[in-house]
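thread: overnight batch results

M.L. [08:02]
morning all. the overnight job finished for the chain we discussed friday. pasting input first so we're all looking at the same thing
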Amino acid sequence: MGHGVRCRTQPKSSTLVQRDQLLHCDGFSSNSTNDENSPVEQVALTVPITDDPTFPVITFRMWILGTIACFLLSFLNQFFWYRREPLTITSISAQIAVVPLGHLMAKTITDRVFFKGSKWEFTLNLGPFNVKEHVLITIFANSGAGNPYAIHVVSAVKLFYKKKLSYWVALIVVITTQVLGVWLGWDIPAVFGGAGRHVVAPKSCSSVPIQLGSGLHGLGIGAIALDWSSISSYLGSPLASPWFATANIAVGYFLIMYVVTPLMYWFNVYKAKNFPIFSDGLFKENGQEYNISAIIDPNFHMDLEKYEHEGRLYLSIFLSLTYAFSFACLTATVVHVFLFHGR
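M.L. [08:03]
and the structure it wrote out:
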């Protein structure tokens, strides 16, 4: 038996969650609500399944706070990326910081209507700061929070190869690789250069205590750190992830870092014992550092004849596994989507 759906809009509030901004409709059955709601409990409790189209979205404060958050996170994360232990500021920081700023702008910016009555009519303040503005600002911040992979190329060209790269060329390299989403713009520096953030461990650091315990030349079992970037380096920010995700990644990290890597090193897989167990350096078969400049021609291309003369290039077992499992993650993502969400 059908009956009308009566909806009422609760008074507006300036709280973050803004639960009293949601539409409460008497006509929804519990089954319908459950079908539309998220199966993740944390999401279901905080994200409404209804919408209020009266909330202003494209506002002055959204553009200002979103643009500032995007530029600020982009600059800070790239600046700190060159540290030995890079410090990452996630979009969650901006997501929290813009809430009081949004409410402050809503209270202090004039609500005067400019060019009233004309087609150019606008105002800088459309009312209370709302959840939709907050979401868009967070998207802005998240867009700037990640470092472009092409920065590795630019850094390697300038720092390792001592080549001059103009601002516009560097900008085009970064933009094209970001837009395409692939590494088509990568050349020899991307493969061999790597903007190294760790000191290359000397081959003399080959004793088991150093290999396992050192935080600089080994796997860091004996290292103690109070730096948050070190504590959360395996995940980024455990506080922002559900427990099952944190535990899953922690188990995987432990197995790769403290089981697979040492075993492959001690069994001398890919001649691993010729090189440090933990290093982002490039080596010859005998463990000497590889001279990349010797295999690059004047046009900054790889010379295959010179490469054959210099010999094969080797990586430390840790870096080899890093590349291997990074590519494996891409395949695993596709398989996961197919298994859990395929029809």
